[in-house]
Amino acid sequence: MSVTIPAPRSQRIDPKYKRGPKSRSSFEMLAWLFMRLSGVALIVLIFGHLISNLIVGDGINAISFGFVAGKWADPIWQFWDLAMLWLAMLHGTNGVRTIINDYAEKHSTRAWLKGILYVATIFIVVLGTLVIFTFDPCVAGSTLPQC
Amino acid sequence: MSKTSSGTLYRGHEGMWSWVGHRVTGVVIFLYLLVHVLDTALVRVDANAYNAVISTYQTPWMALGETGLVAAILFHAFNGLRLILVDFWKQGTKYQRQMLWGVMILWVVVFAGFAIRHLSLAFGGH
Ligand code: HEM
């Protein structure tokens, strides 16, 4: 005598695999896509940054206030550094957000860690953006010839 | 899944270690980026203060640290491309192991080039 066991029809997911109400938003999918698109752009931006600052000419030995002033006199480098700042910060923040979600199991711990992360991110992105746009070659201590 | 289970196709193999490496390098680069924006922000405060901080980056010990950081960036960048290919290329999952070898070879070659150039500049003393 044989017994036929019907295929399971239950849609139930064990509650221990659930951390919150199911969401219909596409935020996580867009974040996933952003990690890949920003990753490709960051290869170009970061490799260009390392080559121009550390490989060509005198490399690390040539970096000084005057070197930075020379680069940011060119709007292309201003834009390059701005794009790198924003993309790297958003990519890194989203990556660390994923890691917090993976390891912090308590809801309040997750919320706190992510709160600290977002505050740090906003602070660094705003600060970096202001530094690029308000750069002054004749700031205190500058010995550049035009000052 | 039980926390003590073992013997899966993934656990303990190259795929897992490349994931661990990608995660660790991602966090290290992110933490460095926070510090790097802060030190660069000194150009907006005082030219001498910026030069003083940058001159510590030019010492041999810091140059070794920078070399380690670039090693992390290069692994994360090349392995990141592999992850993108695994996700978007039809044959990606089939060749993920071969691609990891490609990542490691590219990483060794590019890193060696960078390390020779950067360390000889930093230790050579111009
Ligand atoms: C150089 C070019 C880069 C490429 C090609 C790249 C690529 C990637 C990819 C494909 C992922 C996987 C995302 C996922 O699993 O959904 C990722 C994760 C991550 N990346 Fe990047 N990335 C780059 C640069 C950076 C930079 C500059 C930072 C830091 C500011 C960073 C920090 C992270 C972090 C923290 C994660 C999360 C790791 C995890 O969830 O295990 N990456 N990256």
From TrEMBL, chain A:
Location within or outside the cell = Membrane
Which InterPro entries does its entry note? Answer: SQR/QFR_C/D, SuccDH_FuR_B_TM-su
Where is it mostly found? membrane
Is the keyword Metal-binding assigned to this protein? yes
Name this polypeptide is given: Succinate dehydrogenase / fumarate reductase membrane anchor subunit
What UniProt keywords apply to this chain's record, in alphabetical order? Heme, Iron, Membrane, Metal-binding, Transmembrane, Transmembrane helix
Provide the species name: Glutamicibacter protophormiae (Brevibacterium protophormiae)
Transmembrane ranges?
Answer: 29-56, 76-96, 116-135
Q: Does the keyword Heme apply?
A: yes
Domain of life of the native organism: Bacteria
Stretches the record annotates as Disordered: 1-22
Automatic annotation (TrEMBL), chain B:
UniProt keywords (A-Z) are: Heme, Iron, Membrane, Metal-binding, Transmembrane, Transmembrane helix
Can you tell me where the transmembrane regions are?
20-38, 58-78, 99-120
Q: Which InterPro entries match?
A: SdhC_prok, SQR/QFR_C/D, Succ_DH_cytb556, SuccDH_FuR_B_TM-su
Q: Which GO terms describe its cellular component?
A: membrane
SUPFAM superfamilies xrefs? Fumarate reductase respiratory complex transmembrane subunits
Q: Which cofactor does it need?
A: heme
Family under the similarity heading: Belongs to the cytochrome b560 family.
Protein name per UniProt: Succinate dehydrogenase, cytochrome b556 subunit
Organism ancestry: Bacteria, Bacillati, Actinomycetota, Actinomycetes, Micrococcales
Gene assigned in the entry = sdhC
